[in-house]
Amino acid sequence: MTPNAEHLSTPLDSGAIDLAGGNASGKHPRMRMGPAIAVYVWQYPLRLVHWGLVLSIAVLSVTGYYIHNPFIVGQLQHPFMMGWFRFVHMAFGMAFLGFFLLRCYLFFAGDRWTRWQAMVPLKKSQWKEMIEVMKFYAFIRPTPVSKVGHNAMAAASYIGIYTLVLVEIVTGLVMYNWLRPTPLLAFLLGWIPHWINIQNLRLIHYCLMFVFIAFGILHVHLCLIVSSAEKRGLLDSIFTGYKIVPVDELGEDDRKAIEAAPGKRVRH
User: Both 116 and 58 in a single domain?
Assistant: First the structure.
């Protein structure tokens, strides 16, 4: 159903919602909060991009490392093994490019929590929020900074990682054009090897693989920490799109976005 002002201003439940059952030992204390709603935050295209990039990076890392250092024996029995690894690498590289372009489109055509304005720290409040997030990660602040979408620190880190993704794509296309020249790539990227040696480009391309792997590990680690502390279905949201949000934590812009959204935006 499409939400309206009444749904947001009137409590959805007269009592607090118990998100954690708790137990006598105190290992899992009760987390109580006021009335909450399930907000459809992560659109299907965004979740498609997320898991598409995860799969692409995994396959590209394995195949890319093999191209750098062939570690599978038996190449005499299978002489085209390197060729197959290169083919899979290039195929998933094109898929990687497609998912990246879709994410760039969502920066301008997505909802409030997906657009570039929610990602780039242009406001003073976003920088203050980053400090509070860092305090939580440094065990100075006891509770995480709860947001409907990304917190300012996460959003800024995604901008940084997407910038590195762009560098990875450009260096990959330059090397592809070096081996199989095409008029379009030669026109767009042919000037780059004149400024940066092709071996240095290959080294940059290879080293960024480890940056993405390290970021992935850190990303999962921090998601587990925040999800455990909030107990609001953070990890579930990347599968379902919905996040549990207390009504009293919705900002004015969040309320406007929910009211203007299609009927899938709020689930009671």
Answer: yes
Same domain flag for 147 and 28? no
Is the model's pLDDT at 96 over the cut of 80?
Answer: yes
Distance CA 151, CA 118 (A): 9
Does 90 reside within a domain? yes
Q: Are 19 and 231 in contact (CB under 8 A)?
A: yes
How many separate helices (H) and strands (E) can be counted in the chain? 10, 5
Q: Which residues contact 143 (CB under 8 A, 6 or more apart)?
A: 136, 229
pLDDT digits (tens, 9 = 90+) for 125-138: 899 999 999 999 99
Q: Which residue has the tokens 């406007």?
A: 256
Q: Side chain identity at 28, as an amino acid letter?
A: H
Range of the domain at 33: 1-41+241-268
- 114 contact partners, CB below 8 Å, separation of at least 6: 42, 43, 46, 106, 107, 149
Structure tokens at 173: 């296309």
pLDDT at residue 262 greater than cutoff 70: no
CA dist., res. 236 & res. 81, Å (int): 39
Which residues make Cβ contacts (< 8 Å) with residue 75, sequence separation at least 6? 81, 82
12 and 104 share one domain: no
